[in-house]
Amino acid sequence: MNMAAGSWLAGFLAGVLGGLGRPVLGLLATIGRVTLFALEAVSHIFRPPFYWREFGQAVMQIGWYSLPVVGMTAIFTGGALALQIYAGGNRFGAEAVVPQIVAIGMARELGPVLGGLMVAARVASSIAAEIGTMKVTEQIDALTTLSTNPMKYLTVPRLLAATLTLPVLVGIGDSIGIMGGWLVGVTRLDFNSATYLKNTVDFLQVWDVGSGLVKGAVFGFIVALMGCWHGMNSGRGAQGVGAATKSAVVSASVLILAANYLLTEVFFSA
Amino acid sequence: MITLSGVYKAFGSNQVLNGVDLSIARGESMVIIGGSGTGKSVMLKSVLGLVTPDRGTITLDGQDVLKQERDAFLARFGMLFQGAALFDSMPVWENVAFRLLRGSLKRPRSEAREVAVEKLRRVGLGPQVADLFPAELSGGMQKRVGLARAIAAGPEIIFFDEPTTGLDPIMSGVINELIREIVTEMGATAMTITHDMTSVRAIADKVAMLHGGIVRWTGTVAEMDATSDPYVQQFIHGRAEGPIPSVR
User: N or C: which terminus of chain A carries fewer CB neighbours within 10 A?
Assistant: First the structure.
């Protein structure tokens, strides 16, 4: 009886440990594969041939066509931020700091993070769906047979375009967001327009904006990397492409938030 | 000459190729037949290096295909994919001229377009098709564009993966005729995968039957009709009864 109980317990523990260990090992293996994929992609950035036409198209798709969604997100966020800071500051007589807090909040955090998340939703999904569909319809194999490296032709232009255009989008988003705060401040909170703008300009430092732009570049890299990785590793059929698209958006979003925390620690921890 | 010697390939526990031996002579049109899931496409992709065999060697003119310089090696090949695999983000002429617009064979765009229009004409499509996108074409037209792309750079070896699947009998006949004409005209070595026995008779100089991960039988079309091999007979006559299980 005791031996049977011992054997059952051993089996139970092995099952529990196995159940815990398998996903951890799977996660580590995936991290390793993604890292190798990223390193290979980066190495191709510096080795010819370069597909400038595809890079130009990627800049348009990722940068230019994301402007409306990033702009809309920024203006409403800036406005809401102004209202919140005013309401919160009112509790201890600090309403006057609205321009400064809106500016620093947009430039350091909300501009890059919300811009990154919106681009992740828009771009990571479309990259994963496009490349995933190409994979299941054998277009990736066709590229290879036509002497074209899919990594160079599909991944590198998107990776480079996202890394370079997202800081620009973040810069524009910051400006629009601060403008949203100014608009609400002037029209709803009775701030003087010139004073609001002067306080913003006087308070904001170069690194406040610069750190946000660096974050934007990192987030752009993450967005394109996740889109390409999940697209290239898409399963078969519509379900496979759908799953790849979903995973691209979820993983890009989570990694953006994690990277944001790490970068904030690096840039601003005392 | 393409030679496969003892080629093995498994995907997980699924052993697809189990020691394939096959030789295709220069200028020969070899057709591979066999049931669905017997590894015909895997074999073809192994030759191109799209799939790496677990064991065995594949040589082209005596040289291991995995040890050759990739660009120069692939420049010798053209391939028509089962679903045509056209790039839907670019117009038909850019699909056809893909190789001529980039890489070592790059030419000016106007010249590449001229070549593309000429290749489209060769497969029976007018110049008005050149600026359409693949999604605007019928299945038969897509296959023809895929064929034009496969021959655009004048390859020595052309692979056809189920060239008539999904086409009506008339369009299948057109594609079969085109393949035969083009292979003869270009003097190319051809390797075709098909289930369509009409295609086999129209295209093949030699036929090989793949079953159970090995090449079970090879011979000419006349020998195929005369053979007493029960696997070949069951397959070419489409019988449910025989050594090949009908439920797989």
Answer: C
B161 backbone dihedrals φ, ψ, rounded to 5°: -100, 105
Residue type, B208: A
Residue A1 lies in a domain: no
Q: How far is CA B190 from CA A102, B18, B177, B243, in A?
A: 68, 23, 14, 29
Chain A residues whose CB is inside 8 A of the B77 CB are 145
Q: Per-residue pLDDT for A1 more than 60?
A: no
Q: Does A60 touch chain B (CB under 8 A)?
A: no
Asked if A147 and B103 come within 8 Å (Cβ–Cβ), the reply is yes
**Residue A129 reports pLDDT greater than 60:** yes
Rounded to the nearest integer, the mean pLDDT of chain A is 94
Residues in chain B with pLDDT < 70? 247-248
d(CA B212, CA B35): 10
The greatest distance separating any two alpha carbons of chain A, rounded to the nearest whole angstrom, comes to 86
pLDDT at residue A68, rounded to an integer: 96
The mean pLDDT of A51-80, rounded to a whole number, is 96
In chain B, which residues have their Cβ closer than 8 Å to the Cβ of A139? 85-88
Residue A267: count other Cβ atoms within 10 Å of its Cβ. 15
Instruction: Count CA atoms within 13 Å of residue A11 on its CB side.
Output: 6
Number of domains in chain A: 1
pLDDT at B243: 86
The pLDDT tens digits for A86-124 are: 999 888 888 889 999 999 999 999 999 999 999 999 999
In a domain, A34, yes or no: yes
Cβ–Cβ contact A269 with B under 8 A: no
Is A2 among the domain residues? no
Contacts of A148 in chain B (CB under 8 A): 98, 102-103
What is the model's pLDDT at position B227? Answer: 92
Question: Which of B45, B83, B98 is facing A146, going by the closest CB pair?
Answer: B98
| Residue located via tokens 């955090």 | A109
Peptide bond into B53 cis (omega under 30): no
Q: Which residue has the higher pLDDT, A270 or B142?
A: B142
- Phi and psi for B214 in degrees, rounded to 5? -130, 160
Is the minimum CB–CB distance between B11 and chain A shorter than 8 Å?
Answer: no
> Which residues constitute the domain of residue A225?
19-268
Q: A6 in a domain, yes or no?
A: no
CB atoms within 10 A of CB A252: 29
Residues of chain A found within 8 Å of residue B79, distances taken between Cβ atoms: 142, 145
Query: Was domain B1-68+190-248 assigned CATH 3.40.50.300?
Result: yes
- Determine contact: B122 vs chain A, CB below 8 A: no
| Backbone φ, ψ for residue A137 (5° rounding) | -100, 15
Q: Do B83 and A137 touch (CB under 8 A)?
A: yes
Are B70 and A148 within 8 A, CB to CB? no
What is the per-residue burial (b if ≥16 Cβ within 10 Å, else e) of B18-49?
Answer: ebbebbbeeebbbbbbbbeebbbbbbbbbbbb
